[in-house]
C-alpha cells in the first residue's frame, strides 16, 4: 500500500506539528474547566495561533496538494483554505483518538502538551522518537513491530515532556495512532526551538536540529 492510498483510505489531513492525521474518536462526555488538572489553567508559553502559514512549512506543498486530491478527486492549490480556530479548554472532551501518518518528507516537530499522550504503532517502518525531560534528562524510543530487537508498539509521553519523531532513515511511511485523556486541544500544544533546547540538551544537538523548524 502506498502513502497516497493510505491518505485517501483514511481521509487524512496535514497536521500542524507535521505529518498527516484524522480524529477518529472524540468522547461526547466532557469535563468542566474546574475539573481539569491545574496545569490546564495556565499557559506553557505565549498564545499560539495555528495559521495557514504554519501548516505550509510543516507539510511539503506537493504532498499537501496530493492529500486533498486523493480525498476529493479534485485538483486544488490549497488544502487548508481558512485559518483553523482553537477552542476553550472548558469544557473538554474526556478522550480523543487520531490516526497519525509520517512520511520521509515530514516529521513531528518537537512539542509538548498539557496531557499524557499514548502512541500506538500500526503499520509501516519504525519511528525514532526523542523525549526530553527536565534537568537535562532524555530518552530515545523506537516505535515499530520488531519487539525482539527493542521496538515498542505502544509508548506514553507524559504531560509536559518535549517530544519529536521521524521515520528511520530509508523508511517509506509509518501509520500510528495517538490517544489522549482529557482530550487533545490545539491550544495545549507548544513548539520548542532549536536554540533553547540545544542549550538544555547539548548532547542531542543533531537530533534537535532535525526535529525543529525556525
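^ C-alpha cells above, recovered residues below v
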Amino acid at each position: 500500500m502506498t502513502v497516497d492510498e493510505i491518505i485517501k483510505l483514511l481521509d487524512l489531513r496535514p497536521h500542524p506539528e507535521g505529518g498527516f492525521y484524522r480524529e477518529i474518536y472524540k468522547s461526547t462526555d466532557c469535563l468542566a474547566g474546574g475539573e481539569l488538572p491545574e496545569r490546564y489553567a495556565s499557559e506553557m508559553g505565549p498564545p499560539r495561533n495555528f495559521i495557514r502559514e504554519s501548516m505550509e512549512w510543516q507539510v511539503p506543498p506537493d504532498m499537501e496538494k496530493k492529500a486533498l486530491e486523493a480525498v476529493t478527486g479534485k485538483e486544488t492549490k490549497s488544502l487548508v483554505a481558512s485559518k483553523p480556530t482553537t477552542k476553550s479548554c472548558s469544557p473538554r472532551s474526556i478522550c480523543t483518538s487520531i490516526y497519525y501518518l509520517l512520511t520521509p518528507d515530514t516529521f513531528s516537530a518537537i512539542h509538548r502538551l498539557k496531557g499524557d499522550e499514548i502512541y500506538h504503532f500500526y503499520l509501516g517502518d519504525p519511528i525514532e522518537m526523542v523525549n526530553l525531560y527536565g534537568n537535562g534528562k532524555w530518552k530515545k524510543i523506537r516505535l515499530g513491530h520488531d519487539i525482539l530487537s527493542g521496538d515498542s508498539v505502544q509508548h506514553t509521553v507524559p504531560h509536559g515532556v518535549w517530544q519529536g519523531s521521524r521515520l528511520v532513515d530509508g523508511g517509506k511511511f509509518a501509520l500510528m495512532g495517538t490517544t489522549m485523556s482529557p482530550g487533545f486541544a490545539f491550544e495545549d500544544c507548544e513548539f520548542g526551538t532549536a536554540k533553547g533546547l540545544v542549550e538544555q540538551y547539548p548532547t542531542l544537538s543533531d537530533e534537535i536540529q532535525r526535529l525543529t523548524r525556525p
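Confidence is low (pLDDT under 50) at residues 44-58, 76-89.
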